[in-house]
Amino acid sequence: MQISRIAVSDDTPDGRFSAISHGSGFIKFLVPNLRYVGTTTLPLEGKLAPSRMQSHSNMTAGTTFANPLPSNQVTGFRTTDTFDMCKLWTMSIFRLSETSTPAASSNDLIGFSHCEDYDQDSVWKSVHVVLSSDLGVTWTRPVPILTAQDRQPKHGEPAYNGGLGDMAAVWDNAKRRWVAFFQEVGMIGLGIAVSTDPRGASLTWSKYDPLNNLYSSGLMGLGYGHPDLASMPGSNPTLLYDVLEKGWVIVYHAWQGSLAWATSTDLDRWSIPQFLDELTSSGSLVYNYPSLAGNISDTMTNQRTNILSYGKFPHGLTEARFLVTRTIQFRTSQPPILGAPELLL
Asked: Which domains does the chain have, with CATH numbers?
């Protein structure tokens, strides 16, 4: 399986990639805010012609929201409209007609975004929903769906880094729900949130503890670190449904600087996380921002050999990074097998 080289920006990867089918190939979305269109055989293969993906920073202030915007008293933000003024990463993108809304136009997309607000030298994270009607060329302005339990400090109050984000979302067709995995500051382990609303609207999400069957509001609700994943906490997950195994695989960045993986049959309960062989940190070397992709889509496969891309940081989590792609083979109850790495320069 040949992995072709593509041109990427200096700050790529900076989160999970997404890809949707398009004609005989795929449209690929790299974060932050890059859109590639090309004829490829897999979502993460091929020489792709880059075009700029429009984000809020390039839109006018009057851009339409995906759905009604909750007040900052409900979201916990310092103001109503600063949550996405600085940066936006759309981590998970899907065609609505292939997920929650079969009758939707094939041009209609839904995206789940990590947003950041910078104030007083601090960063506050949150998760949002965005919609597109032109295959991701333009997007609505994001609407918050998941925020931290803590209120964001207002300008002039003592500031600190906080919030909730560094996430990935998938469509769970078996239970007809959206499922998001996220990291919340101060919480041990990845958290889970769910929504049965086809368009993932704000105020329809609940943070979820599947072990104890506990729920709280997606906006400022109590965050439940997933007990199954607490032994190896981390962030920036990516998920793939394996049709052959009838189950899910998750790969994510563990706080030790390595990539970890686990499996599940239902997205609720997970195996004990383990490090991926060869991708454990040593010294200042860190691995982060993994993205899985199968032969059907970036969240589904029916073959053994799939694609894993990730960032390699030789000097810790600094701006100096390399985008690496390699094959990965999943096997029943055994560690995945990694192919030789290829740098995408």
From this structure: 55-343 (2.115.10)
